[in-house]
Amino acid sequence: MKIGLIREGKVPPDKRVPFTPAQTEEIQQRFPEVTIVCQESPIRCFEDKEYRDHGISVQADVRDCDVLMGIKEVPIDKLIDNKTYLFFSHTIKKQPYNRTLLQAVLARRIRLIDYEVLKDKLGNRLVAFGRYAGIVGAYNGLWAYGNRYGTFSLRRAHDCFDVNDLKLELRKVKLPPIKIILTGAGRVGKGSMETLDSAGIRKVGVYDFLTRKFDEPVYVQLSSADYHARKEGGAFNREEFHIYPERYTSSFTIFTQVADMLMAGAYWNPKAPVLFTREDMLAPEFKVSVIADITCDIDGSIPSTKHATTIPDPLYDYDPATDQLYPPFSNEKHVTVMAVDNLPCELPRSASEEFGQDLINRVLPLLIHADQDDIIKRATIADQGRLTDAFNYLQDYVDGK
Q1: Residue 299 has pLDDT above 90, yes or no
Q2: Inter-residue contact 100 to 43 (CB < 8 Å)
Q3: Strands of 218-222's sheet, edge to edge?
Q4: Does 226 appear as a known binding residue?
Q5: What is the Cα–Cα distance from 108 to 80, expressed in whole angstroms?
Q6: Tens digit of each residue's pLDDT (9 = 90 or more) over 37-57
Q7: Does the active-site annotation cover 93?
């Protein structure tokens, strides 16, 4: 099997890679039947020379490869007929902006395997960048607070060489005794905890967070059970909440009355109640002044997340009184929002290394040898010009209906 690492073509460019140069050498040692080639690219966080130094052929054309691997969506004019591709296609939710991409995949009889749906039998994702979204998102939240109040100054995350350099930078954080809410306990939540812990911010329990005053900055990590209640009464049921979130109501405002910053890292189901409303933000009891919306659900659970921000321009201010957006730090009554939607791109070397190692350990053996438990099969959206059975629901999307 010949695997080609393709040049990222999406704009703005993404510097991440499926495999680092060292990992490509590891693959060829562990899987002698595999050859890795690398398409020339001036964009990657790793230079072409770094791949050559590990014995990898770097070439302009990868048409002779069996499998082509990238990160973001492949531009339609760069797709090669009858190949197997692995990348994040962002089509499984019927995203309108990628309909033509899926149409082209089918027309060109491409076998499309989407990283997002590579899951084990229990539905756990095998590869993801969530941890680094959390690490960088929480870092950006602290960076935003330091800039808003002038209490400390950090380099931007993308100016750090790797995650270790970023964690050294966190030693500069000097916060007053503020309270920080962190939602989510998955990859994003755990990554955010890494940042907060590295910054020396103490984690406390829900009761203490709500009732005690501290002489140091603290954070609380909330699960869904901490801020949802059944409309009909009774105990919170996690399984029911995941299936029927509309049966629950939010009590999140008890936390916004005592917290200064929110870091949102929990998945939000559109059928679930929002965390809080614009009207809640207008209440004098609402205390949060900085929101790092790591999940970046536009018009979702957080009313101030009106649009995604970018790495070069990561912040804006939201005025709940007018429902309008303004430049950051323009008024002390505004809420400062960080809503960058491609956070792992700020630490591309570290994020790529973890992602690539998971691919090597969890996915490549299935792709090369035997697809145990049909993991590759279940993650295949299209093959031989047709949608696979699991993705037939996308047919009306493909047809433009």
Answers
A1: no
A2: no
A3: 202-203, 218-222, 179-183, 261-264, 290-293, 335-338, 315-319, 324-326
A4: yes
A5: 7
A6: 999 999 999 999 999 999 999
A7: no
Long-range contacts of 208-215 (CB under 8 A, 24+ apart): 209/179, 209/255, 209/258, 209/259, 210/254, 210/255, 210/258, 213/177, 214/177, 214/179, 215/177
DSSP state, 78? G
Question: Residue 135 CA to chain centroid, in angstroms?
Answer: 10
Assign 392 to helix, strand or coil. helix
The Cα 286–Cα 276 span in angstroms is 10
DSSP one-letter string for 233-275: -S---HHHHHH-GGGEEE-THHHHTT-SEEEE-S---TTSPPS
Catalytic residue (one of 10, 54, 78, 90): 90
Catalytic annotation present for 49 = no
The strand pairing partners of 58, in sequence order, are 38
Cβ distance 11 to 19 under 8 Å? Answer: no
Strands annotated E in 78-214: 84-87, 111-114, 179-183, 202-203
Q: What's phi and psi for 121, nearest 5 deg?
A: -65, -25
d(Cα 72, Cα 98) in Å, to the nearest integer? 12
Short-list 254, 260, 176, 263, CA closest to 214: 176
Helix, strand, coil % over all residues of the chain, rounded to 5? 35, 20, 45
| Token pair in block for residue 343 | 């956070």
Q: For residues 144 and 164, give the distance between their C-alpha atoms in angstroms, rounded to a whole number.
A: 20
Contacts of 243 (CB under 8 A, 6+ apart): none
Is 187 marked within a binding site?
yes
Question: According to the model, what pLDDT value does residue 44 have?
Answer: 97
319-361 pLDDT per residue, tens: 999 999 999 999 999 999 999 999 999 999 999 999 999 999 9
- Residue 61 has a pLDDT of 97
Distance of CA 34 to the CA centre of its chain: 30
| Terminal-to-terminal C-alpha distance of the chain | 38
